[in-house]
Sequence to fold (448 residues):
Amino acid sequence: MIATIPIVGWIVSSFVLHGVGLTLPNGLQGVYELETPDGGGGLESDEWTSPDDVLASLAHDGIDRVYWLRLERLGQVPVWVVKPGPFELERVYDAQSGERLDPLPEEVLRAVADEHLVDTRAGEIHEGAEFNRYYTVDRVPAVAVRMEGDQPSEVVFSLASGRVLRRTDQLAEWFHRAYRSVHVWQWGDALGAFTALLYGLVGVALVLVGLGYTLWWLRRDARRRWTDAVRPARRVHGRLAPIAGFLLATQMLVGAYLWFNLGLIEPRFRGQGSFEAEWSGGISTSESLPAPSAVLEAVSHALGAGDDVVRYEWRAVADRRFALAYPDPHRDGVLLDLSNGTVLDRLTPQLAARAGAAVVNGEATDAGVESTEYWMDFNARVPTYRFRFSDPDDTDVHVSQVTGEVVQRRPGIWRAFGPFLAYHTFGFTGNPWFDTVLLTVLQLSILV
Fold:
């Protein structure tokens, strides 16, 4: 009887969470209308530190190469943002004084938040830490900002650079809390202890199913002697109980497998097992890069009339150097090949493969296929090339067609996860309403 309590809790909570998930206006991912900041002008000012000045300063600090660097405004403060390595936290320098600003002060982060969502402003703000699949640190130092206005939400910004780590509206935030506390019994950060509790309850449920099958088997002779006087409900139970037991037991096992991936090995599940610690390439701090004014002159014909550039970025792909000019920080910029001054629509698959190979522990085993992948930085799906790599986790790597940035990593365990998740949620058809009705019928049947 005690063992039925967590079972009923799981079934009822899954019913509620699945129903809530259908009504989430922004989804669990947090898709919102982002503000396009005013250009502001002046990013090409000769009075500010140049790319070469920034690189020389980094060389003085003992850094011999960087993954990329960019010039933009955080709030109204012109800054240089430097990515020392593909998996490291960014560094931020004041573009006028050269002073290092990270971790960013609250007034800068509040200004960044004020300019983030359309018709929405920053309210309460507090520091915390977030797991993020793009970094090797266990938790990224961050601030959570309660956004007030037309798009009420919580947006989490990195303290290092103001990068958005998560957007969550109030309903999705409630979903996450309910999922952790009611469905997977995770009431704190002691992952091992709470996972042991969860798996212990799963084990109890499996014991209950085993006892049920034992009882069903021991009563087989009695069922053969049933007469018409036996109640129909008992007859239905005798026939359907083994099916319900099978569904319940397999759901428990699948649920334990899913949590193993989403909890115990989450960093590897998210693709961190394919990180190449000894990454190659990058921009040497002894190099010379063109100034923003030179980049603007080279790409001006490719910009729209009246477009202001709100971000400049310099990247390396193998032995080639590229610059990007962004009229909108939430969309791909204009790509300039610095070797010949040519504006490109995108990187070739061969260049994208080399960009991926520089930061992936393995080699691409195919020529890649065109795809799209959701990118939190742009709050949208971006065009990518998808390559299968020969790393230990057999990872599919999505590389941006424009920047060469690795947007997503999906290891073999992620791909194997899909069919099990479909069974766990009965998401067989892709039609959310049909699948929800199917799952609801299953849940009600097992409760009965």
Observations:
- The longest helix spans residues 232-264.
- The longest strand covers residues 120-130.
- The chain has a mean pLDDT of 91.
